[in-house]
Amino acid sequence: MQALTLWLLARPHNAVLALTVTLLLPAPQLTSGAIVVLLVLAQGLRKAVIETCIAAAVAAVVLLILGESLASILSLTAGTWVPALLLALALVRMRSLTLTLQVSVIAAVAALTLFQLVVPDPAAFWQPYLDAMTQLLRENGMQLDAGLLTADIMTISAVFVFWALYTTALLFGYSLYKRLPLETGEFGRFQDLNFGRIIAFAIAVFSILAFAVGSSWLQHIAFILFVMFMMQGLAILHWLRGVGKLPLIVVVSVYIMLPFLQVLLVMVLAIIGYTDAWFGFRRRLKKV
To answer: What pLDDT is attached to residue 137?
Structure first.
């Protein structure tokens, strides 16, 4: 991993090549976004932006040759690299991984609110995506239960998935940066992540208000804030591994099972992270 990181930083064209190739892979927000984070942390914002813009031009030429539209290319490049640049810049300015991830939670809630305001009919907005998904499943001999994917579920899922991809890219890029064989900035450890009682208290407030006034918007905010605590649950697993209270195989198994037991594991991790925000399991274990 260290050799790959050094190769990326050795010459500008290495970074451009890696950004271009990873942009064409599935979930480019994760792989290509992590490279952007690494470039910003290791080389500075200016050089990272220049390399990203060159990679965007190269990727645009390739995708245009492959028959993609200019609008889809702009959407892909901006949606992949701009959030990663902003998160990396926030990490550099705030010098705190925990604070940066807390800000990312607020940004996700703002995005959810903006979607609710800008899109008057979420069902009509998501229908083309549902139709495409249904057609894809039919071609593979499967069938989609229309009742399982409502507009509300699609909206919440989209916000959470993109937030998880971008924040994981930040963590991965930061991890690559810390592996460099030279002096690096210290922005905190992922295993110490704590979203704090303020966000935990906000979940309770939004839940009560949503129940009192019957607002689906408040329900969405409360739920999206809650499931984001799964990241804190993962941090606790890494902390337990770091202090020798959990074998490596358990942590690895959680990551392996996550794609197959998405809803169940996310909810379990969110419950662990949310209760830790209130009761401070790690702090108590340190005292013991």
So the answer is: 67
Within 10 A of 97 (CB to CB), how many other CB atoms are there? Answer: 20
Look up residue 1 and give its two tokens.
Answer: 């991993």
CB of 223 closer than 8 Å to CB of 267: no
**Whether the Cβ atoms of residue 30 and residue 208 lie closer than 8 Å to each other:** no
The alpha helices in the chain, defined as continuous H runs, are 2-10, 12-23, 28-43, 45-65, 70-94, 97-118, 122-139, 151-178, 196-213, 216-227, 230-242, 248-257, 262-279, 281-287
By the 8 A CB rule, do 18 and 8 touch?
Answer: yes
Its pTM surpasses 0.85: yes
Residue 143 burial class via C-beta count within 10 angstroms: exposed 0-12, middle 13-18, buried 19 and up = exposed
CA distance 161 to 98: 19
CA–CA distances in Å: residue 122 to residues 12, 55, 108, 210: 42, 34, 17, 19
Q: HSE on the CB side for 117, CA within 13 Å?
A: 6
